[in-house]
Structures are given as structure tokens and as C-alpha cells.
Amino acid sequence: MKTITLRGVDEDLEKELRRRAKNKKESMNKTILNILKKETGQEKDKPFKEYHDLDELAGTWNKEDFDEFNKNTEICRQIDLQDWQ
Question: How many other C-beta atoms lie within 10 A of the C-beta of residue 20?
Fold first, then answer.
């Protein structure tokens, strides 16, 4: 792989690149490479946007939380046969 030195990066551009890297939780290098790949057509947009706004909630339930959820949503699993006639 080649190394490129980029000169003339002003303060506003640096701040924006750092902001993007922080938001994506990736390095500045990876952020800049992804921007370059996208702009040069070497990386296509994903067909569906990925969301990570609920990631911090994944895996946080314990058994009591799960049992409470099941108890409170039990009515949703019942079939009303009159609705299907």
C-alpha cells in the first residue's frame, strides 16, 4: 500500500474530518479513505442505510427484564378467532 501526505488541510476541514471519524467511531485514516473511495467511485453506497442509534441497548436485558416483557406482551400473542372468520 502507498502512503500519501496531504498538505494544505485547513482547520475547518480538519475539524469536520475529526467529527466524522468520531461519529463513525473510526480512525481519521479510515474516514478519509472511505471518503476518497466513495468520491472516486470505488465504493458504492449501501442499498440500505445502517442505523446504530439503539446499539447501546443491545444485550442490556437480564432475565427479570425479559420475563417482565413477556408478561406484559402476552396479550399480543393471543389469537382472537372471531377476527379470522
Answer: 15
Provide the b/e sequence for 49-76 (b: ≥16 CB within 10 Å): eeeeeeeeeeeeeeeeeeeeeeeeeeee
**Counted domains in the chain:** 1
Query: Is residue 44 included in any domain, yes or no?
Result: yes
Assess if residue 4 is contained within a domain. no
Q: Give pLDDT tens digits for 39-71.
A: 998 887 778 888 888 888 888 889 999 999 999
Tell me the whole-structure pTM to 2 decimals.
0.51
d(CA 71, CA 76): 10
Residue 1 lies in a domain: no
The span from the CA of 9 to the CA of 28, in Å, is: 13
